[in-house]
Amino acid sequence: MSKREYNFYVYIMASVSGTLYIGMTNDLIRRVVEHKEGKIEGFSKKYSCKKLVYYEHHKYVYNAIEREKEIKKWKREKKQDLIKTINPHWNDLYRGLVE
Questions:
Q1: What is residue 52's predicted lDDT score, i.e. its pLDDT?
Q2: Residue 61 lies in a domain
Q3: Which residue from 11, 39, 70, 87 could staple onto 34, CB 3.0 to 4.6 Å apart?
Q4: How big, in percent rounded to 5, are the helix, strand and coil portions of the chain?
């Protein structure tokens, strides 16, 4: 079975209080809107994780799934360091995606 190339994203949403949610999607804009509107049931909705603070692109679903699992295992400090590599001020990156 050959790997098919698509667009997949591993992303991190943050709440005002700093709670982090790590997820994976094939449509980053749609998924972020769902988070912002409170449509994602569970952890993200409970902790109001509505600010996109980090994302990375993957061509293959398998790579994205493995990366999501890897990041989820990390301690909070390492996740924060990852966010700071592309977003040192923890801005909401959503605007940049839709502009």
A1: 98
A2: yes
A3: 39
A4: 40, 20, 35
Query: Would residue 69 count as lying in a domain?
Result: yes
Pair 59, 6: CB distance under 8 Å: yes
Backbone angles phi, psi at 36, to 5 degrees: -60, -35
The model's pLDDT over 46-63, given as tens digits with 9 standing for 90+, comes to: 999 999 999 999 999 999
Q: Give me the sign of the Cα torsion angle 94, 46, 25, 17.
A: positive
Alpha carbon separation from 74 to 18, 68, 69, 92, 97 (Å, rounded) = 16, 10, 9, 22, 26
Its pTM stands at 0.92
User: Does residue 80 lie within any of the structural domains?
Assistant: yes
- Residues in the chain, total: 99
Name the residue range of residue 33's domain.
8-98
- Dihedral of the CA atoms 65, 51, 81, 43 (nearest 10)? -50
